[in-house]
Amino acid sequence: MKVSVIGTGYVGLVTGVCLAEIGNEVICVDKIKEKIDMLKNGQCPIYEPGLETIIKNNIKRGRLKFSHKIEEGVKQSEIIFISVGTPSLPNGQADLSFVEQVAKEIGKSIDSYKIIVNKSTVPIGSGDWVSMMISESMETGNNKKVSFDVVSNPEFLREGSAIEDTFFPDRIVIGSSSKKAITIMIELYKPLLEQDFEWPDSKRLVPEVQKVPLVVTDLTSAEMIKYASNSFLATKISFINEIANICEKVGANVTAVAEGMGLDKRIGRLFLNAGIGWGGSCFPKDVAALTYIANEYGMTPQMLNAAISVNKEQKLKIIKKVQDELKIVKGKTIAVLGIAFKPDTDDVRDAPSISIMNGLSNLGAKIKTYDPIVKNKPDSLTDRVKICKDAYEAIDGADILILATEWRQFADLDFDKIKKTMNHNIIIDGRNFFNKEKLQDMGFRYIGIGR
Ligand SMILES: NC(=O)c1ccc[n+]([C@@H]2O[C@H](COP(=O)([O-])OP(=O)(O)OC[C@H]3O[C@@H](n4cnc5c(N)ncnc54)[C@H](O)[C@@H]3O)[C@@H](O)[C@H]2O)c1
User: Fold this and answer.
1) Alpha-carbon span 5 to 20, nearest angstrom
2) For the chain, which end, N or C, has fewer CB atoms within 10 Å of the first or last residue's CB respectively?
3) Segments forming the whole domain that contains residue 190
4) Which residue out of 18, 28, 44, 282 is catalytically annotated?
5) Is the CB of 8 under 6 A from ligand 1?
6) Helices 254-262 & 219-250, crossing angle to 10 degrees?
7) pLDDT at 205
8) What number does the ligand 1 atom closest to the CA of 11 have?
9) CATH code for the domain in which residue 410 is found
10) Mean pLDDT value of segment 260-287
């Protein structure tokens, strides 16, 4: 099938590349020309394990093309995915300006029947709104009689395992009022739904998936499935963080508590890791957007508000732990390992590490940080933070070491060496990742979250 994907970020690029891999002719479009130039040369502009190889393979096969012109993508495709960003406005509302620009451009270029697929996470009702934007834009051109359908097809991939998540999803959700569009979308996803494709990476394990469940529903419910899913996951993390805080008071170990809870099939083990709170490009903005929507209807979403409030406090708790240990933070040196909001991605949007570093820097501490992939200082991070070339440089002379992102390689750190270079041997393990007993036996003061 002929497909175009507008917006080649973490979602659009993975979607386009994987759809090419399963046999479609795909054009990925982005307004950033440098990004498109890199992609044309087979270079991946984001860090996502395995992605660059599939890009290169499909460019060679002639199934994957790149353009910075929406018109080119629209004219050459029957299915057009919108996967541009929908960041938060200061009031929590989703900013739909990128979606609006794209919808208007599509309206100008549409020349035959098209399916417009909202893959961006958009507020409830956006499907109808996109439809209106396209129609209004068509009215100014001479393509008024061309028909199109809008479909909601929310994305659930996780950065860091985006390829696996796309090939082996837990479910595919398609929302539309058009039977024709739904039929075509099912045809597009058939290889994934039936798990009938060749897994492109022989080095990586293939999960055992028989068939992928398909949820076909109306536009509004599909849009709500995405917001409700992310809000549930964020709430689950806030829940275990609250339990962790109670564990600290009563002397229980939240790791054991989560294990004991998670073995219950009704609860499940995933997203029950206590830590420094949720961040990233999706949870904060999606929970805020759903809260905003509820407010628009005169509702106070109490569970969502509680999840947000617990999360805000959780990030501050790390700062409080530093104050409890050092008493005076001014003039102290703090090493922070990990900047990305989670391992295996270079995404720093709303990363808890950044709030913590900015907070400690405002208190007068000197911050040194290291991340295996994030090498440049994110705009949201204060200039006073020093980015180091490795973990040992960050830790050298530190009074406290904070683990903010549990990159696998941090498990292999040489703590004998670290002990010799730190000022005070205090480790705050923001992800309950290190071996507490081993570090304590080595003479470190170990502070975890709820254990
Ligand atoms: N990142 C995730 O893990 C994830 C997971 C599920 C859903 N989502 C949702 O998917 C959407 C995209 O997220 P993302 O993380 O990929 O965003 P992103 O910021 O990484 O990428 C968006 C891309 O769209 C491009 N763009 C913006 N306006 C454009 C225009 N007018 N024409 C062409 N290109 C344009 C940008 O240049 C950018 O490359 C969001 O709504 C997000 O909530 C993200």
Assistant:
1) 11
2) N
3) 2-217
4) 282
5) yes
6) 140
7) 65
8) 16
9) 3.40.50.720
10) 97
What count of Cα atoms within 13 Å lies in the side-chain half-sphere of residue 57?
15
At 107, the amino acid letter reads G
Does position 16 have pLDDT exceeding 80, yes or no? yes
Q: Is the CB of 287 under 6 A from ligand 1?
A: no
Please report the sign of the dihedral spanned by the C-alpha atoms of residue 322, residue 327, residue 328, residue 332.
Answer: negative
Ligand 1 centroid, distance to 22 Cα (angstroms): 22
CA of 440 to the centre of ligand 1 (A): 44
Angle at 348 between CA 345 and CA 350, to 5 degrees: 130
Q: What is the pTM of this model?
A: 0.95
Tally of domains within the chain: 2
Residue 408 and residue 271 share a domain = yes
Q: What is the pLDDT of residue 180?
A: 98
Whether 54 is in a domain gets the answer yes
Same domain, 201 and 264: no
| Ligand 1 centroid – CA 180 distance (Å) | 27
Rounded Cα distance between 198 and 195, Å, is: 9
Q: Are residues 427 and 348 in the same domain?
A: yes
Phi, psi for residue 164 in degrees, rounded to 5? -60, -45
Do 259 and 336 share a structural domain?
yes
Considering the domain boundaries, does residue 116 fall inside one?
yes
Residue type, 12: G
